[in-house]
Amino acid sequence: MVAGEPEPNESPNESAGSAPDPSEPAGRASAIRPFLLTAGRVAGGGTGPPLPVETQIVATASGISVLASLAFEQRDIVAACRQPQSVAELAARLRLHLNVVRVLAEDLRAAGHLAVHVPHAGTTQDISVLRRVIDGLRAVPDSRDTLRDSG
Amino acid sequence: MVSVPSPTHGTHSVTAVEPPPVPVKLVIAGGFGVGKTTAVGAISEIRPLTTEAAITEVAAGVDDLSHTPGKTTTTVAMDFGCITIDPTLKLYLFGTPGQDRFGFMWDDVVEGALGGLVIVDTRRLDDCYAAVDYFEHKSIPFAVAVNAFDGEVHHDLDEVRWALDVSDHVPLIVFDARTTGSVRDALLVVLEVALSRAEGATGG
């Protein structure tokens, strides 16, 4: 959770068992605070295209070691990335705007606290990857009993 | 119940740094309330997550983007889930926002997708035109899936194909967004399109 960030409409993490309601996202990201977090910077501003939403981010050993000295969102991001996370997952779990996560992740990478694994552009044409996805998907059973809560 | 090889997903590593999987993604598109989140939830191994994505909204009727005053960026909620194929490969499913007849540019989400599934409610065919157009324009492999609400489809598939004006090589299927197996099979149809296209590109 973002430290000290009151969100008027925020509901607690979805309680297990309740059906997700597509029309009512639980806790929308704040509209103004993102600009404070990134000092007004936006993703993709100059240095290249924005990180794809599925980009995997993982904390580095040095990031973990300085965790206590990091502030707020930076700390939340590095802590969450003890296990690899996509940009989209990070944004959802920390209730941050996608573009805020992009900017902060780039900062943290520059500082050596995160490793950012941008997907290769050629993957969509990679026959062996496509075959593995197809085989993996075929192994999904006809019904799933329970969904794991994320996190 | 058949016991299934569930993805090994223990809580490994306290001290970081396992190599991340290669991420791939499919996009699930369609009009508002058509069953995108239902479909994601039916097959995702995690409860669908929601995040805020930016999309570029182009005012209707504006064709030439170079002189467009009507182009704005909107923030919308986007639902997604994932399936761990194996420890080195993870499939993400993104439900693209898009709930009206404006043209949307989902590049932010769609760039790099293996393919797309456009979900159709036959009672509101109009709602999916934007998605069909988009995938055709971007040459992204896709299939169209009619969501059989309550097991019923109100139109003949040939009529739907005619009404949507999708070409014959685009698969058109009926599925049930609530059912894991049905969503799985629909996604497999998309992936087969992607595979045959990739094979065609390399094999000649």
Automatic annotation (TrEMBL), chain B:
<keyword id="KW-0342">GTP-binding</keyword>
<dbReference type="GO" id="GO:0005524">
    <property type="term" value="F:ATP binding"/>
</dbReference>
<protein>
    <submittedName>
        <fullName>ATP-binding protein</fullName>
    </submittedName>
</protein>
<dbReference type="InterPro" id="IPR027417">
    <property type="entry name" value="P-loop_NTPase"/>
</dbReference>
<keyword id="KW-0067">ATP-binding</keyword>
<dbReference type="InterPro" id="IPR004130">
    <property type="entry name" value="Gpn"/>
</dbReference>
<dbReference type="InterPro" id="IPR052705">
    <property type="entry name" value="Gliding_Motility_GTPase"/>
</dbReference>
<comment type="similarity">
    <text>Belongs to the GPN-loop GTPase family.</text>
</comment>
<dbReference type="Pfam" id="PF03029">
    <property type="entry name" value="ATP_bind_1"/>
</dbReference>
<keyword id="KW-0378">Hydrolase</keyword>
<keyword id="KW-0547">Nucleotide-binding</keyword>
